[in-house]
Structures are given as structure tokens and as C-alpha cells.
UniProtKB/TrEMBL annotation:
Its cofactor is Zn(2+). The keyword Transferase applies. Its main location: cytoplasm. Keywords: Cytoplasm, Metal-binding, NAD, Transferase, Zinc. Residues 1-230 form the Deacetylase sirtuin-type domain. This is NAD-dependent protein deacylase. GO terms for molecular function: histone deacetylase activity, NAD-dependent; NAD+ binding; protein-malonyllysine demalonylase activity; protein-succinyllysine desuccinylase activity; zinc ion binding. Gene3D superfamilies: SIR2/SIRT2 'Small Domain, TPP-binding domain. GO terms for cellular component: cytoplasm.
Amino acid sequence: MKKIAILTGAGISAESGLGTFRAEGGLWAQHRIEDVATPEGFARDPRLVVNFYNARRAQAAKAEPNEGHRALARLEEAFGGEVIVITQNVDDLHEKAGSQKVMHMHGALKSALCAACDHRWPAPLVMAPGDICPACNSPAARPDIVWFGEMPYDMDEIFEHLASADVFASIGTSGNVYPAAGFVAEARRAGAQTVEFNLEPSLQGSQFDDIRIGSASETLPVWVDELLGR
Ligand code: APR
Ligand code: ZN
């Protein structure tokens, strides 16, 4: 049974109005990573960090999936084999489009995490520093986001998916951040056919068997129709 492992990055959500990180005027041009995406930043100024994610959570809550997300959901539903989406994104647009098997390796805006007991629960739209953990009652709630210097989630399971993939697709990621940037090498080692979808080749562009240049909302439906023999 054929297996397709799909990595997505901020580029797949760009056409849904959610900003990417490294483009001109992107999120990392507006905010310093060390201030809003590190444990040290959170310790220094929890309100700044919680408000940064409150703003992104509010934006994501209003955002709609685009034809790229919907194509992947259609692929999972109609494909005879297995499809797994491994996303670096913290929005829930894959789920809103109908994808069932989604792994959020960098966490999710819709989830809150307790820094004291690791309990997770659905995040309120607006979090505040010192929110109480419903499991241990400590004022230790934090955004359930994997910050720089922290370990991405479910890496063992992700590497198992890469090791058994027949096809690996990487969509809308610049390839700046590991371990995701190393996934194409893992998939190639496993003998998978590899394809990249981006506006321009990523840093790992030369490692892909095929590159589809264009907006994901246009290139993905074409690819999915090919896979479904339409
Ligand atoms: N269609 C396809 N690709 C697109 C589109 C689009 N419509 N718009 C932008 N892109 C591509 C850009 O060309 C770029 O290669 O999406 C990529 C976005 O790159 P980044 O902004 O670096 O985002 P990403 O690769 O997801 O960042 C990875 O870095 O800051 C951390 O945790 C954060 O998950 C994030 C990680
Ligand atoms: Zn707790």
C-alpha cells in the first residue's frame, strides 16, 4: 500500500492570509525570535509572548483553508494508500480543510501547555500569563508552541513515517529550520520519490526529484489529480 508523507510550512497558509516568517516584512522582520519564540523570551516577558500568540491565534481562527489545504484533504480521503501530513505550522487549516492525519511538530495555537506538569488542554482564544493549569492548578500555562531550542514533537514517529514513505512532498517551507529541513534526505535514504512545491526552490531544492514552482493553491490540486488518476 503506497504511503505519502507530506511536510508543510508557512507557505501553504500564505494564501489564507497568514504571514510567513522569512519573506520581506515577514513575522521575523516584525518581531525578534529571541523575544517571542524562545523559552528565555517567555521567562523574560511572558505577557509579550502570550500576546504574540494571542494575535496569531485570533488571525488563524478567522482564516479559511485554501485550495492547497483542500487538495491534501481530498488526497487523504480518496487515495488508496496512506497519507500523513507533518506540519511545521501552528494553525489548524489542515484540519479545517478535512485532513485527519496531521502531526503538529511545532505545536498548535489551539493548544495550551502546562510548564509545570506538561498537561495539554484546548487554549482559550486569549491566554494570559499565569493562567491556571486545570490539571495541577499551578499558574504555569504557556502557549503549546515548540520554541527555538526546544525539541519538536513526535520525532520518532515522524522518522518512522519518512522511513516508510514511497512519496515525500515538501510544501511551502524555506528549509531554514531543522529537523524539518533534513526530512528530504531521510526520505531519499528510504528510496522515496521526492517533490517540492514552492514559489522558488528551497535551500534543499536540489535534493528533490521534482520541483513544482507556483502557488500551492494552484500546484497542489494539479498534483493530487495526477495521483488520483483524474
Ligand atoms: N505557495 C507555495 N509556497 C509559498 C507560498 C505559496 N503561496 N508563499 C510562500 N511560499 C514559500 C516561500 O517561498 C518560503 O520558501 O513558503 C516558504 C516560507 O518559508 P518560511 O517563512 O521560512 O516558513 P517556514 O519554512 O514554514 O519556517 C519554518 O521556522 O520560525 C520557524 O517555527 C517556525 O515553523 C516555522 C519554521
Ligand atoms: Zn499543570
